[in-house]
Each structure stands twice: as C-alpha cells, then as structure tokens.
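Fold this complex.
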Amino acid sequence: MTGNVIVLGGDGFCGWPTALHLSQLGYDVTIVDNLSRRKIDIELGCKSLTPIATVEQRLNAWKEVTGKQIDFVNLNIAEDYHQLRDLIIDVEPQTIVHFAEQRAAPYSMKSPTHKRYTVDNNINGTHNVLCAIVESGVDVHLVHLGTMGVYGYGTAGMAVPEGYLHIFVDVEGTTKEVDIPYPSNPGSIYHMTKTLDALLFYYYNKNDELRVTDLHQGIVWGTNTDETLLHPHLVNRFDYEGDYGTVLNRFLVQAAVGHPLTVYGTGGQTRAFINIRDTVRCIALAVTNPPKKGERVKIFNQTTETHRVRDLAELVSSLTGADVRYYVNPRKEDLENELVVKNDGFLELGLQPITLSEGLLEEVVDVATKYRDRCDASKILTDSRWREDIPLDHIGSEIPAMLEEDFIAAD
Amino acid sequence: MTGNVIVLGGDGFCGWPTALHLSQLGYDVTIVDNLSRRKIDIELGCKSLTPIATVEQRLNAWKEVTGKQIDFVNLNIAEDYHQLRDLIIDVEPQTIVHFAEQRAAPYSMKSPTHKRYTVDNNINGTHNVLCAIVESGVDVHLVHLGTMGVYGYGTAGMAVPEGYLHIFVDVEGTTKEVDIPYPSNPGSIYHMTKTLDALLFYYYNKNDELRVTDLHQGIVWGTNTDETLLHPHLVNRFDYEGDYGTVLNRFLVQAAVGHPLTVYGTGGQTRAFINIRDTVRCIALAVTNPPKKGERVKIFNQTTETHRVRDLAELVSSLTGADVRYYVNPRKEDLENELVVKNDGFLELGLQPITLSEGLLEEVVDVATKYRDRCDASKILTDSRWREDIPLDHIGSEIPAMLEEDFIAAD
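Structure:
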C-alpha cells in the first residue's frame, strides 16, 4: 500500500494503533493531535494503566524498530483551521482518518462545561476538516470514526442496518419505497455530536461530492495490536476509570485489582463490541475501499458481536473469581434491550472477526495484572450523571438489593 | 397575556416585530442580542433599506408610544454562556424565543470563514441555550425559529408533514409502523445548521424533558407590522441585497429602483412563503400553546402558501412594469420542483393566513419606493456560490438565452 494518510487524533486509544498499522502496511502517515486526551488525564487526576511514552518517544521507537517514519503535527483541528488547510495542501493525503473528537459519554455529561466542550470541539473539529478539504482542492477520502450509539439501542426488534433504512411511505394512497439515513437516537451529549457529524457528512457529500466513509464502531476492548507490541514505547493506552474506560476493559482491571465488577443498573444493556485488533483492520479496509466520486456516504457497522453487560460481568467473574456488584445507573437508558447488528460490509471486504474468547481476555488480564499498581481505585466509578434528579450521592452507590423498584428508580 | 419572555435575537428582522408584538400582548419582554446583524451590514457595506433606529431609540419609542418597557441585554449567546444562564435564573422566563442565529443561506456560502462562522455561531448558540435552561432549573418553553429548508425541496410528491414522517418498515417479514423525525435534506450550510439544531432539540427533549417548539418557517415577505408602524423609530429592517434579502422583498425593491427582477436559473423553484405579520402571530400562538412536559418536540410548518419563483417575478412585473431577467444560479438545487406543505398546526390554533395580494404587495412597494434612494444597486446580486466549479465571473451574470443546456450548466 502506498500513499499519504493523515490520522487526526493519532495519539489516542484507537488512533495510535491505527497510525502504526497503516504505517506498517506501507502508507506514509502523518499524525495530527493536540494531545487533548493526555491533558484530560491531568484534569481527571488519572492516567493510562499502561505507561505510555511521549509522542516523540513513540515515533522514535517506531523508526528504530521498523525503519518507518511517521510525522507528527501538534495542532487543534477545532481551532487551527488555516494550519489544517495548509497541511492538507502540503501533504496531499489520499485519505484522512478522523479520530480527533472527545469520545467519552460520561465525560460529556460531567457538567455544563463538559457538555459545551464536547459539542464545540467535536462539531467545529469535524466541520473544519470538511471545509478544509473542500478549500484545499485535494481529492481526499475522509474516514470517520463514529459510533453504534448514533442508532440508539433497542431498535424495535430490527437488525440495525448499515446507516440507511429502507422505508415505505404512503403518498396520497400510493406506497413509495425509499432509503433514508437511519433515524438517529443518541444517548448522551457525546453520542449526539456523532449524529451531528453524520449530517455534516451528508451535506458535504451532497453539495461538494466529498467522499466519506463513516464507521459506526462498537465498544472497543483489548489494548495491544501486533504493532504496539513491537517495543515498550509503542504500548497503547489503557483507560480503566469511569469516564474513558470501556466496559469490558474496566471489568478486567477491576478483577485484577480486587474491585467488584461495576455493573450499572441490571446489566441488561446489550451492546456491540469489537477488539482493538479488528478496529485497525477495519480502518485499513475502509482506507483501501473508498466510495466513488458522487457515491453517497458509505457507512459500515464496525462491530463484530453483541453481548449483554451482565453476561460479560459473569464471564469475567468466572475467569477471575471477581465479585459482580450492581450500582445505581447514572445513565438514562432502557433497563434491558435486545440488539442485533448487521456488519455485512466489512465481512464482504474479508474481515475475519476476532470474537470474545478466554485466550484474548487473558491477554488483557495479563496487561491489567502487570500494571495493577498504577491503578487508582478511587477513579473506578464515574461521578457523571445523566439527570439532575439522580442525587449525587447515589452515583457510585451499590443498589441495596435486587429489587425491581430500585432499578426503576435508578433508571 | 402575562409572564416573562426572553427574545434571543430580538433586534433582527423577525425578532424585533416579534418582541413588539409579545410586549403589546402583555408579556414582559427582555431582548437579548449582540447586534451581529447590524455588524454584518457593516461587513457587507450595505444597510437596511429602511432607516432603522438604534436599539435604545427603538425601546424609548416603544415606551413613549405604549407605556410598555422592553429590557435589552447585549450578549453573545454563542460565547457568553454564564451571563446567559444567570439571565435565565434572574428573569425566570416562561418562554424563550430563539432567533439568534446567522440566517442567510448565501452569506453562509460566501467563503470558508463564513461557513465556519455560521456553524460555530449557530450550533454553540443553540446548545448554550439548551444547556443553560437545564442548568438554570427554570421550566422554560423554548420556541425556535427554524426553516422549511430543513426538509429540502421536492419531496417525492408528498405534502411535507409537520416535522414527523409516518413510515412502514419491514422487520423480519412483519410491517411495523412508526413516526420518525422527517429526514433532513439541507440545501446550504445555513440550512444544515438548522438540521443540527433539530437534533440538539431531540436530544434535550428526550434526556432532560425540555419543552421545545420548532417552527419551520417559509420565506418571509413584507416589512412592517401593526406595532412597527406606531412610530418611525420602530420601523423594521428591510434587506434588499443578495445575501439577506428574501426573494419577494428583493423583487419589489428591484422594481422600485428600476433594476430587472433577478430570477436565478429558470425560476422553477417552488418555495413556501409567509408574511411578516403572520410570523409574529404564529410565534404568539406558539408561545401560548406550549407542549406538555414529556411531550416530544412540537413542530409547526410556519408558512401559509407556496409559489414558483418565476410566477412571483411575473406578478411583480405585471404590478410594476419591471423586466424579468434570468441569471446564472449560484445554488446547487433542482431546476424545477413541486412543493406542497401541511400547515394544519397553526390553522387549528386559529391562524387566518394573510396571503399574497396586490394590496399587501403595494404596501411593500410603497416602502421600497419611499426609501429607494438608500438602495445601493451594486449590492443587489450575491457574489456567493455553492460550488467552486461555477466560475466566479458567472455569478451575477445573466443567462445569455433561454437555452435548456445553459440552465443545466448553471445547475
């Protein structure tokens, strides 16, 4: 594979292993990142469970191990529009992969300041990228990391299609059939910003014929990939705290440090999952299979399996002996939902999904155990809440008994 | 009518007559405005055809004529979040009417700077209002000025419903019926921001049970209302230039100054219209008929009739003797479209629409004629364009002959 690729947010949890994977495949990679995720670590008084190296150390190690050069530009795409535009003109990327958004739902719900930051940062960031591509005149394919959360969950028993819904509408007694963008139903401010992104893509695709692929990703688990294992300085970040930690990774760390597994509500939420190794493979497939000029926004459900949260907790418990505990749910969501997701797009492009297996879970447990002394147990539960009417002192509290009314109250 | 109402953008073309009308009806009105529209006049080197007074002169005149007090707060809702929140806590409004957005499609397409300003200003402004209402704890009904443009035009021969579409979906062989938000299809960056607003409303209504009414307004024509006619300092603004001037008002000024009527493309675009007097009545109806707590976002099509642009040009021509000329269309839109719009919501609330009639057109012609010396003819055509592949020197050019291929090229 050859050509120039810019990875926006290339220092983050998904961006970093993606940048390495694309570099390994032969692309000339430029990372753009303002290091906001590292700064949020400082704000939250917490850090990656794995000891991540600085960007400079990371890139030096990559060069040392592989001989490949990855460039790094520190800029804020939501603010530094002209630098971004000029970079696109300079680099002439065939693809821009866009991870550069605030990506934690609980963080987006922490306070009005966090809600406003998430909206301002994510929408201006995405819009700047689109506007800069058009202004640059470079024929860029934009690959965007979205989320399964744009669909909302529990979609009327229907398998969630890949972005578009085929509907029948009555027009004066005649039935018309048409494909529409799947109606969005976000569950947090963060998820809402991704539904706004989708409308930005829709518009720029229609008006400017921009080629866009939007990846509706499930919840990522795992930490390392073939590339991040090549050198200690290449290790990927591992978030275990209540805001940025993804559910399965959090369970595995909790087990490693002897904390009960923190199930919110009944754990009846069914969610879509993907291993980080599949994330980087899916993005490589998206990069090599761009939509044609004039084609509508290409949408993939970037996910490989679905699980109920309490089933995951039971699985981790059986593997590690950890207790499972049920906490007051800070979110506003259905207590229980079914979820069936179509992911034919990537399967047709040859993805062979890594599904949950004890072997891969143990790999993560090993990482968690190795670094458990770096875990600050006080950060395991979020202090975010979705509604003002959940008392703050209920957040982080165990549900006293498995009584139905408690769950209803908690929801 | 009693109670406190905040009118965001209350110094603008729709906001000002609305503020007066609500004050006249008995509401205690506070106008919030950062005077951005007056500053854009300076940027564009143009001004309202009518000589509008300063805000202070306006409010003094209103007090002098009616004895009623309207308060004014100069703040930028997209930036001054904490002042906005504190104002809501102080005023405890039962309703906030939100006009405070950049509202011209051609202006939003002028350059990357204008695109980015429109997105940043409109989305952060609307989100700040929503966030501030929730944080304030005040039970506010938000009434938002949206646009018919969120639907896109030419919607498969279907009468455009009021915000929600009833669809049939196949779920494993069974047909399910469901109401979804009408799929949006914006035609400019400006219109796109209104579709983003709609998702913000959807989310805050769902998560925080905020009561929201969204008004999908047609193209406004006319200038004065009963209240703005009460004193010369109360006169409403009248935009005639290519960016902010609305089509029918522009035709009437063009006729008054002896400029040909500027039809873009074939003039086959069918659009929805409303007179400014009906705008203020509709908003009063929306204010007095809020949705219930827990009710979904209430959406009205705030429009009273539809017309094809070339028919309007012919009507104005027959009334005034003006020539009709066809110009290269800077927009990306269908050459011809049908449009049927449902507006049952306001009719059921008692609206008796003012429709286009020679009498009312003549009222506007009188205003245009009275102030025609204030018209700068060089500002009549926009220099905005929707696509880079329309040569800049084609913008503002007459189409040489009524040849079909010219129109296709222009589109």
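The longest strand of chain B covers residues 164-171.
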